[in-house]
Amino acid sequence: MPASTAPRLLDGQARGALQRARSLAIEELIEIIERSGLRGRGGAGYPFAEKLRAVRRNAQGGDVYLVANGYDADPGSPLARTLLTRNGANVVHGISIAAHAIGATQVYLYLHPEAIEARAAAERAIGEMAAELGVPIEIALGPGGFMGGEESALLAVLESRRAMARQRPPYPAAQGLRLRPTLVSSVETLGILGTSRLDTRLDFDDLRVAGTHMGSAQVRAIAAGTCIVNEAATLFAYLAKENCAICVPCRVGTKRVTAILESTYSGLGRDSDIAWLDELGTHMERFSLCGFGITAPSILRTTMREFPDDYRIHIQEKRCPEGACKPIRSRRYETMVQP
Ligand code: SF4
Question: In the sheet that 65-70 helps form, which strands lie side by side, from edge to edge?
Answer without folding.
Answer: 137-141, 106-111, 65-70, 182-185
